[in-house]
Amino acid sequence: MKVEIIPCLSDNYSYLIYEKNSNTVSIVDPAEFKACDEAIKKFKKLDFILNTHHHADHVDGNLELKKKYNSKIFGFELDKDRIPGIDVFLKDNQKHKIGNLEFETIFVPGHTRGHIVFYFHNEKIVFTGDTLFSLGCGRVFEGTHRDMFKSLNKIKSLPLNTQIYCGHEYTKSNLNFCLSYDKNNIALKKKASDIEQKLKKGLPTIPTTLGEEIKTNIFLRCDDPGIKKALNLEVSHEEEIFSKLRDLKDSF
Ligand code: ZN
Ligand code: FE
Q1: Do residues 105 and 91 touch, judged by C-beta distance below 8 A?
Q2: Nearest ligand, CA of residue 141?
Q3: I want to staple 134 with a disulfide (CB 3.0 to 4.6 A). Which of 4, 46, 208, 252 is the partner?
């Protein structure tokens, strides 16, 4: 399984997945037709489109790509009326194949009420859309803070060496937020310099790994005593910390 990053719009990432043996070409969240079409030119085909959620900056390439390549579009059953051109209605915890590759859908409501992530368990790769970002998480638009907290915990339970491909290049601003409430985190400081170097060269900060995120992403560290202290919420439960951080980040 080869994953190629397709930068789209101002800060979106669409992803091209290629599997050689079955010669299968797929795209996760085609944000725009042009950039995706350019990326699949060398294959002259697009078998599948996988959508994490219905927002325009994740599905805008759907119809034009489907029209040109006759691709099959996968989306969550709850979003069957909002994902353009949807063909296959996925369910939570369902396994599906694209060529030789098998993925599992994990339902992660919060950002939207129909958000899913695609977990390729054999390769240990997850496409997290706008639920988990590097050093951040998505805004809560259609769900509750509790939904988002639980959804992040589902992702958190995957193997630590899982590679994470998310929907946006938000890492730098997320980093600034993490640094302001998790000042003494040595792993975060180290990641900060890695990020600066990549961005300086114009490179994506993606993929990241779950193990790295658990050490540095403040939204996955809500049980950390230092963070609780920085918020003056020493006796609060993890979920309250999450909620407070999400509010703070919304106005950061
Ligand atoms: Zn979104
Ligand atoms: Fe988005």
Answers
A1: yes
A2: 1
A3: 208
Q: Which residue of the set 57, 60, 79, 182 is catalytic?
A: 57
Pick from 1, 11, 8: nearest CA to 174: 11
- CATH number, domain at 19? 3.60.15.10
Centre of ligand 1 to C-alpha 30, Å, is 12
Mean pLDDT score, 45-57 = 98
| Annotation marks residue 130 as catalytic | yes
Count structural domains, the chain.
1
Q: Is 168 a catalytic residue?
A: yes
Please identify which of the residues 29, 54, 55, 79 carries the catalytic annotation.
55
The domain containing residue 89 runs over which residues? 2-175+206-219
* Cis before 207? omega within 30: yes
pLDDT number for residue 235: 94
